[in-house]
Amino acid sequence: xxxxxxxxxxxxxxxxxxxxxxxxxxxxxxxxxxxxxxxxxxxxxxxxxxxxxxxxxxxxxxxxxxxxxxxxxxxxxxxxxxxxxxxxxxxxxxxxxxxxxxxxxxxxxxxxxxxxxxxxxxxxxxxxxxxxxxxxxxxxxx
Length: 142
Prior knowledge:
By secondary structure, this protein is of the alpha+beta class. The protein has a single domain, classed as DD-peptidase/beta-lactamase superfamily (Beta-lactamase, 3-Layer(aba) Sandwich). The protein is built from 4 helices and 5 strands; from the N terminus they run ααββαβββα. The protein has helices at residues 26-37, 51-57, 83-86, 127-139, and strands at 71-73, 78-80, 95-98, 104-108, 113-117. A 5-stranded antiparallel β-sheet has the order 1-2-3-4-5, with helices on both faces. A hairpin with a 5-residue loop joins β3 and β4. The protein is globular. The termini are far apart.
């Protein structure tokens, strides 16, 4: 494991901000994303979120107040509202979010597709978050 001197220690810290401090794995993030592909159902069949909750989380709740163009904001995610305005590949309704150090994930329920990218690159830019879905969608041949 490579640790950056600026990285928050794994133990012995108190994190108050919502913008940092989440410790997880790509596998766990993917399990979270799969909840949305399975309408709230975990792999063991347990409903962790109701289908109505999944629906509400994926709706734009801020009108056109969210930037960049073509996106709205649901309950915890950026939501594509107008694909042409995004100038990207994806689907209307696609959910996504990026984090510090270039982490990124997206969930496309129309394509039954989720992808997670985790890096440790600082400072933040949206470069990899824009490129990763492009590569994923370009790889779909079916």
